[in-house]
UniProtKB/TrEMBL annotation:
It comes from Faucicola osloensis (Moraxella osloensis). Residues 325-334 have a biased composition (Low complexity). This is Helicase. CDD domains: DEXSc_Pif1_like (cd18037), SF1_C_RecD (cd18809). GO terms for biological process: DNA repair; telomere maintenance.
Length: 691
């Protein structure tokens, strides 16, 4: 099914299951529908089955949204208690459309509970209280975690009675968009005629050509950046790699110890659920991942980053007397609040000011790093307030908390957080306290679900569950970002139940699409209008147009900020001499003997950016294929003479801080007859001049 058809079906108000292979455009289709609803003032709730997936959608977990937590069953008392929670009741009552992304990771029983809660709060016996339900995902992902005795049949949401009651329209997207932007194929993206999408589709169909294994094993020769993610099937391999990488860091170690309180057996249960060592050792430069959602910091279970500092702060350490979890007065702080890219700012001018202020702060931080300084985050505590509340049993402690720079550039302080079990009255039965971080040079394949990775080293040699291989490979955007270390006989197999369901979904989607396409344009428009009216939305063209204009203006501002952040990151990478994935992509094209102009066109980059990549490649890869770029001697000789002339006069103004002759000096000596790129390229072939 095409995305446009799926959108037309969604606009009729039907419950929809949106699925398809990686790169088919599920997220894009959801975002298009969200934009349509918001422009018409229809209340829509965006949720996902996991924290990281919810973050991608700028939403919250469905467990939190519906008030069910991690429960697998709800008694009448539980429902009554949820109905007393004003925040939960208000958001459910106003919601007309509910989106649940990554439905494959939501347990069947929890799907039933969501239906139960919505019917109770809406006081409506229709499925899910009569609201439109859009669930999206791919059941070829790993199944939800359940009890040891449960089979996948007990876990998958499509096995729930509530799934049947919802009477979903199946929209199985079939178009591929993931690699269409490549004008010229990147080396390492295709082996034996197979790219990543072709490999994934063979796994989905379980119909393999003889070339799939040679294509996958060929990726073992790929050279990935040092900051690549490593995916393993077993936690023991993950721990070994993380401990090894931590040991390579020469910075001081900081140890954070966990503790619990309350019922011992419940504390032990919490301890196991946290899946972290009782003692967490961190160092500057450690790659980490959050293991708990925190809306205050706008991080989720799975958000990744790097420790860039340890912040000294005076505060009350959580203790066994208070049962306090970290509060707004604790050191948890988002040091650079993100902009909401889905919602609309009421005032575009205010938004622009916020963006400019954030850019200035980012620039200051990066320039500080580039110039060799160290950005310090300071926090002050009102000593009078502390003195008023301090007791003999509640002592002040000088703590050092990890300052984490997230992959999106934000910096947050991670403090002690709590995992709790409450009774029916909300009283704490047990609590477990720990820093919500874990080392993340390597992670398990199960933990990687919901992530999109530019580059990953993957080891499937110990695959123990069908579907693990598909999940790992589908995290990547392109085959050039994969380094596959090994496979076994289970690596490319899929769960038979999931495969059977997928085939059935495809058949139903085709059948329903055929019926839907018989409707006229007028009939569709009438159905679309009726649903908006039913949701008490607006059909006012002026209001819709005003929203569209604000949305376009905000998107431009967001793109402006994104571009600025990319430039700043590039500046920081240049200063650190980092070989990034984007540089390696340029190297792959160089290996195919493409020219600078062809690389710039293929990658939609400026030629000056490509030239910068080539300089790094020449420095770090002495045997890199750049011979085809060599200018002829008539081109090189004038630049060589200009270089020697400048070197001979030995004027400090012609040199940079490292004593190298500035490119500008050579360009000016040649009276601008050659561009900066011309000179940079020539110098690569005029060694040993030292530039």
């Amino acid at each position: 099914m095409k995305q446009a058809t799926a959108l037309d079906i969604l606009k009729t108000g039907k419950n929809v299951f949106l699925t398809g292979s990686a790169g088919a455009g599920k997220t894009y289709t959801i975002n298009q529908y969200l934009h349509y609803l918001r422009a018409r003032d229809v209340a829509v709730a965006v949720t996902a089955s996991t924290g990281i997936a919810a973050t991608h959608m700028n939403g919250m977990t469905i467990h939190s949204w519906a008030g069910i937590g991690i429960s697998n069953e709800l008694s009448a008392k539980d429902i009554a208690r949820i109905k007393k929670r004003t925040v939960v009741v208000e958001r459910i009552e106003r919601t007309k459309v509910l989106v649940i992304d990554e439905i494959s990771m939501l347990h069947r029983q929890q799907f039933e509970l969501i239906n139960q809660v919505l019917q109770a709060i809406k006081e409506n016996t229709l499925p899910f209280g009569g609201i439109q339900l859009l669930v999206a995902g791919d059941f070829f992902q790993l199944p939800p975690i359940g009890e040891p005795h449960e089979s996948n049949r007990d876990k998958f949401a499509f096995m729930a009675q509530a799934w049947l009651d919802a009477d979903f329209q199946i929209c199985y997207l079939s178009e591929q968009h993931r690699q269409k932007t490549d004008k010229i194929a990147v080396a390492g993206n295709t082996y034996y005629g197979l790219d990543l999408n072709a490999i994934l589709n063979q796994i989905r169909s379980q119909q393999f050509t003889p070339h799939i294994m040679p294509a996958l094993t060929a990726t073992a020769e790929h050279v990935l950046a040092d900051n690549r993610t490593r995916l393993f099937t077993h936690n023991v391999n993950v721990q070994a790699i993380n401990e090894q990488e931590l040991g390579k860091l020469t910075t001081a170690a900081h140890t954070f110890r966990a503790w619990g309180e309350g019922d011992e057996k419940l504390v032990e249960t919490l301890k196991k659920s946290v899946r972290n060592t009782p003692e967490l050792v961190l160092k500057l430069g450690a790659k980490v991942m959050f293991i708990k959602n925190n809306t205050e910091l706008n991080v989720s279970n799975g958000t990744m980053g790097k420790v860039v500092d340890f912040v000294a702060t005076t505060l009350k350490q959580p203790n066994k007397q208070t049962n306090d979890s970290p509060s707004k007065n604790s050191p948890s702080k988002n040091l650079s609040e993100p902009l909401d890219e889905q919602g609309l700012a009421a005032d575009a001018t205010a938004l622009l000011n916020a963006i400019e202020q954030e850019q200035q702060a980012d620039m200051a931080d990066l320039l500080d790093e580039v110039n060799g300084g160290q950005s310090q985050q300071t926090r002050q505590t009102d000593e009078d307030d502390i003195a008023a509340t301090d007791t003999a049993d509640d002592k002040l402690s000088e703590l050092l908390y990890p300052l984490v720079e997230l992959n999106d550039g934000r910096k947050v302080i991670a403090e002690y957080d709590s995992w709790r079990i409450d009774d029916e009255e909300g009283e704490i039965l047990a609590a477990y306290y720990h820093i919500p971080l874990t080392l993340a040079w390597a992670i398990t394949i199960h933990k990687s679900q919901g992530m999109t990775l530019d580059a990953a080293e993957v080891d499937l040699s110990k695959t123990f569950e069908k579907g693990q291989g598909y999940v790992a490979l589908s995290r990547l955007k392109q085959l050039s970002g994969l380094q596959l270390l090994g496979v076994n006989e289970l690596s490319l197999q899929l769960d038979p139940l999931a495969r059977g369901a997928d085939q059935r979904f495809q058949a139903i989607s085709a059948e329903q699409e055929g019926e839907f396409l018989t409707r006229s344009k007028k009939q569709l428009n009438d159905l679309h209008r009726e649903f908006i009216i039913q949701c008490r939305g607006t059909l006012d063209k002026e209001k819709i147009a005003a929203y569209e204009n604000r949305a376009k203006q905000q998107q431009k501002l967001i793109e402006k900020r994104r571009h600025a952040v990319q430039q700043l990151q590039s500046l920081a990478d240049d200063a650190a001499g980092v070989i990034t994935p984007t540089v390696l992509e340029t190297k792959a094209l160089l290996d195919e003997s493409l020219t600078i102009a062809e690389i710039a066109q293929a990658r939609n980059l400026a030629q000056s950016t490509v030239m910068g990549h080539i300089e790094k490649i020449a420095e770090h890869f002495p045997r890199a294929n750049i011979a085809h770029l060599r200018p002829d001697d008539e081109w090189l000789q004038p630049i060589d003479k200009a270089y020697q002339k400048i070197a001979k006069r030995d004027d400090k103004r012609d040199k940079d801080n490292d004593g190298k002759i500035k490119i500008r000096a050579i360009v000016e000596e040649l009276r601008n007859a050659y561009s900066y790129n011309d000179v940079k390229l020539a110098l690569l072939f005029l060694k040993p001049h030292g530039n």
